[in-house]
Design brief:
The chain is an all-alpha fold. Helices cover 69% and strands 0% of the residues. The longest helix has 29 residues.
Length: 283
Amino acid sequence: MSTPTSAPARPGAATGAVAALLLLSAVAYTAWVLEVVLSTGLDPVQAYISELAAEDQPLGGLFRATDLVAGLAVLAAALLALSAFHLRRPARPEAGGSRGRRPWAAGGWAALALFGAATAADSRLPLSCAPTSDEMCAARETAGLVPATHAAHAVTSSLAVLGALGGLTALTVAARRYHRWPPVARYGPWLLGAEVLATGWSLSAIAAFEAGHGTWALGAGQRLQVLLVALWLALLAAAVGLPGRTGASGGDTAGKAGAVAEGAVREAPAAAAPSRAQRRDPV
């Protein structure tokens, strides 16, 4: 008699852990706002956000540590979600299990895992100096006289952006397609659109700076880009952690209709199966 009551508790605990890790990552990923109260010597409108963590900056160690925490927390949340809810073999619906795998959700968590791993690697491959505020640093970077970490940092940063965009896109599609996580289904498209625009701004500003045409408010674009990702992580944490995350949309209506039809044969126990399946596969 103890097995039926204890089985659903494990996914519930995993769901809470995923939500907590996502929230932690959102907080750590916004550590750059401390530049408002701390003297960094960098212009937040013009400077790369990565320059805060450069090796020659007085607070570089702090920002490298917060980036590492943010990356590892996202990576752990994504891997936990994948292992607990998307990598196992789905049970048959009549046995109270999931109706099948959800590829958009699984793909979204995999993209977030890439984002987390790349962000953590980013923190271990810092810039050696701040090119937007140090002309000598910019000249050495143009001449290729900076450490190889500059090129590696560019690669990991690009992977982090791809992972964030991929995760935001896939999990927003999953929320709307599978009728779950109502906050993500409602606000995800708006955050995705804003993130695409901010990414375009950042990429254009980087190209202009590297071509010697100024910074085009590079720092502001990157900070907006990072802020939107942090807001998305917080929104996803809230959506995953809320008890009523599946909402009352079309998918629930279909599930209720199926339960009523099946109840004509199996009566009350079968009618409860869809809600138990949702609890088993919440993310």
